[in-house]
């Protein structure tokens, strides 16, 4: 099992949030691979023995959810109960919404779907328990429409507002690394008074030092690595490579080389925007962060391209744009030298 590196601040926030009265939709966002899913799963694991909490957890990253039928198969389980244990998740005590054995997924309206979700949520509440609905990579539902023109995602947001802000029945927690999607949500006036946003960002340097020391890296290795590490999986890679006889310097050099080639490939496949891309990247030559309000309108579309390609990360709540990782920053600096 991969080791979990303690993120006490994030764990405390989320565990406390799960035990409060439902009153908002919580959006957990952050750079790709910053540890959002890992932290959320740890919260579930730490609280799964609580008899008063029932977790409905859907990791859409695992599934192709491009059609209505696929969505229904992911979210619902056929059986004789209003909610059923997800037997495919052996390591976690999580549940799926229940439907009758003869429930016809092919001939169902969006109102039928929401009626079932409400019934199942209320069944949990009637047992004196608090339901917690968690959807990882929620933006994957953007392309699904019911009855020809009803956006599943937009209608889900309306349902979530009802379950949380209006009726206080159920926590709804949505995770995403798509910062443009978070921007859409943040700008949605109907969600403005009903949502909270929580950033799971890079690891801080003191925590990285502590972890590397616990993993038996020496002072020289730690002092070198600290300038390049920002994401949890990078520590896993560093630890594994050390066991394989690969030095810290070589591992990090390889990281940067790979990121540099990815960015160069992106530039080559967008030659009509090469000048604008290089101009945009040059803004990070000396600065790791840029305030979005200072970006010229002429470069906005280029920034958007770089964010969509996960070269840059847009923290819409704090109005900051930065590379998705420190190693990406060094790759950018190499390209614009």
TrEMBL record:
Keywords, in A-Z order: ATP-binding, Nucleotide-binding
SMART domains: AAA
Entry annotated with the keyword DNA-binding: no
CDD domains referenced in this protein's UniProt entry, alphabetically: AAA
UniProt keyword annotation of Nucleotide-binding present: yes
Pfam family, one: MJ1010-like_2nd
Protein name (database record): AAA ATPase
Lineage of the species this protein comes from: Archaea, Methanobacteriati, Methanobacteriota, Methanomada group, Methanococci
């Amino acid at each position: 099992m991969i080791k979990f590196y303690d993120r006490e601040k994030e764990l405390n926030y989320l565990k406390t949030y799960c035990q409060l009265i439902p009153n908002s939709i919580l959006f957990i966002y952050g750079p790709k691979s910053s540890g959002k899913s890992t932290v959320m799963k740890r919260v579930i694991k730490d609280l799964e023995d609580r008899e008063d909490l029932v977790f409905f957890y859907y990791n859409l990253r695992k599934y192709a959810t491009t059609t209505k039928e696929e969505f229904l198969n992911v979210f619902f389980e056929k059986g004789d109960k209003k909610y059923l244990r997800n037997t495919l998740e052996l390591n976690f005590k999580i549940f799926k919404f229940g439907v009758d054995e003869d429930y016809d997924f092919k001939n169902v309206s969006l109102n039928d779907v929401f009626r079932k979700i409400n019934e199942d949520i209320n069944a949990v509440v009637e047992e004196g328990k608090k339901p917690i609905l968690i959807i990882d990579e929620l933006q994957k539902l953007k392309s699904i429409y019911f009855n020809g023109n009803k956006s599943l995602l937009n209608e889900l947001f309306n349902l979530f507002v009802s379950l949380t802000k209006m009726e206080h029945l159920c926590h709804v927690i949505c995770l995403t690394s798509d910062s443009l999607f978070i921007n859409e949500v943040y700008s949605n006036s109907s969600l403005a008074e009903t949502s909270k946003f929580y950033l799971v960002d890079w690891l801080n340097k003191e925590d990285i030092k502590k972890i590397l020391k616990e993993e038996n890296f020496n002072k020289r290795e730690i002092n070198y690595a600290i300038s390049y590490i920002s994401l949890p999986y990078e520590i896993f890679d560093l630890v594994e490579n050390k066991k394989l006889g690969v030095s810290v310097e070589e591992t990090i050099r390889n990281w940067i080389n790979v990121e540099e080639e990815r960015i160069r490939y992106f530039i080559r496949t967008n030659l009509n925007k090469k000048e604008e891309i290089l101009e945009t990247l040059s803004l990070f030559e000396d600065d790791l962060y840029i305030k979005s309000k200072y970006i010229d309108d002429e470069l906005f579309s280029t920034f958007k391209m770089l964010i969509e390609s996960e070269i840059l990360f847009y923290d819409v709540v704090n109005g900051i744009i930065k590379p998705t990782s420190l190693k990406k920053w060094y790759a950018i600096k190499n390209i614009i030298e």
